[in-house]
Structures are given as C-alpha cells and as structure tokens.
Write a structure and sequence with these properties.
Strand content: 5-15%
Strand order of the largest sheet: 2-3-1-4
Structural class: alpha+beta
Distance between the termini: 141 Å
Shape: rod-shaped
Largest sheet: 4 strands, antiparallel
Order of helices and strands: HHEHEEHE
Radius of gyration: 52 Å
Helix content: 40-55%
Number of helices: 4
Length: 202
C-alpha cells in the first residue's frame, strides 16, 4: 500500500445517520413537489374562472345593467328572456325546412234541432198514431199533438223499410201501463171510441 493513502472507515452508527438523512431529504423533496403542484392547480382554476367571466356575452351584461337601472328607478324587473335560436324564429330558412304547425280550426258548431229525435232502439214504450209517406203531413200531426200536451216524435224512415214511411209516435213511457193510459187519452182527444193506435217497445 502507498504511504500517502488513507483508508476511510465508518462506524455502524454513522452509516445509520447518513441513511436516515438521505430518507429525510427524499421526503422533503416529495412534499415540496406536492405543494408546488397544488399551487399550480389553484392558479389554473383561477385563470379559468377569469376566462369564463371574460367570455360572458354582451347581451347578458346589458341585461344586468338594464335591470340595475330599472331597480334604481323603482320600476319592475323584466323577466329574463331566453335567447331564440335561428331555428326557433318563424320565417327563417334553415337547411332542413321544419313544418309549421297551424292552430287547429274548430268546425262551426251545428245548430241543435228544435227537438232531438230518439233512435228506433230508444228505451221505453211508444204509441204509434200515424205512418205517412209525406213528411209535412207527419209533422203537422205531430205539432197538433204537441199542442194537446203529448210528447211526440217523428221517426225518419228505417233502413229496412221497403218504401218511405214517416212514423208519428207519442212517448217514450217507462212502462206499458203508462203507454196504455196515453193511448186512451189520445182516443179521447180524437173523440173516437176505437182507434188504430198501437204500442211499440223502443
């Protein structure tokens, strides 16, 4: 061995101290990196908020200014109006023409007839007093019986009729007995002992 050379020797406790010092240095560097990263993230978030504020449309800023002016003057605040897109504006042409829905037009209401005619299958009992092939004659008889206080209907010709027949019937009545009473009253009104009236169940 050369005379000037010296051999470095470390005790065990010295090696442990050096090892622990290296570990502490690594932990410090790690924590420093985490803190720097969090600071950068917060700065980036603040920069994003400033950019979004800068990108606020002039229309909303003008609306806020108008609202503040109205509030200062003591007037009512206007309701916020959602901006309409070009597609929502009527009369504007877009690439695909959207069909314009027109409000439904209600048909004129039909005038109710002077007296509704019950169907041939109406419930109850009727007294048939006449059957004529002329509608004016049937209606004349019906008006005469109505003046005498009887409920009268003029039945239109049925689909099964071989010829046109307008039937004049009195009723309807809830029971056959009441229809019989009405038939007797009709005979008295006609001043006849026997009549060719007959009962019909609706």
């Amino acid at each position: 061995m050369a005379k000037g050379a010296r051999e470095l020797q470390f005790a065990t406790h010295q090696l442990v101290v050096v090892f622990l010092g290296l570990i502490a240095l690594c932990v410090f560097v790690f924590l420093l990196g985490i803190s720097m990263g969090s600071k950068r993230a917060s700065l980036a978030a603040k920069a994003g908020e400033k950019a979004s504020r800068a990108e606020t449309p002039a229309s909303s800023i003008q609306a806020e200014l108008d609202a503040q002016a109205l509030q200062a003057a003591g007037g009512p605040l206007p309701e916020p109006v959602a901006p309409k897109s070009q597609a929502d504006t009527p009369g504007t042409k877009t690439g695909a023409s959207s069909p314009v829905t027109k409000p439904a037009v209600k048909p004129p209401a039909e005038k109710p007839e002077a007296k509704a005619k019950p169907a041939a299958s109406a419930a109850g009992w009727f007294v048939q007093v006449s059957a004529s092939d002329e509608k004016p004659a049937a209606e004349t008889l019906a008006r005469k019986l109505e003046k005498e206080g009887f409920p009268v209907v003029v039945m239109d010709p049925l689909a099964k009729d071989k010829k046109i027949v307008y039937r004049v019937r009195v009723g309807p009545y809830e029971s056959k007995a009441k229809a019989e009473e009405a038939k007797a009253k009709l005979a008295e009104a006609a001043k006849k002992k026997t009549v060719d009236y007959f009962l019909v169940k609706g």
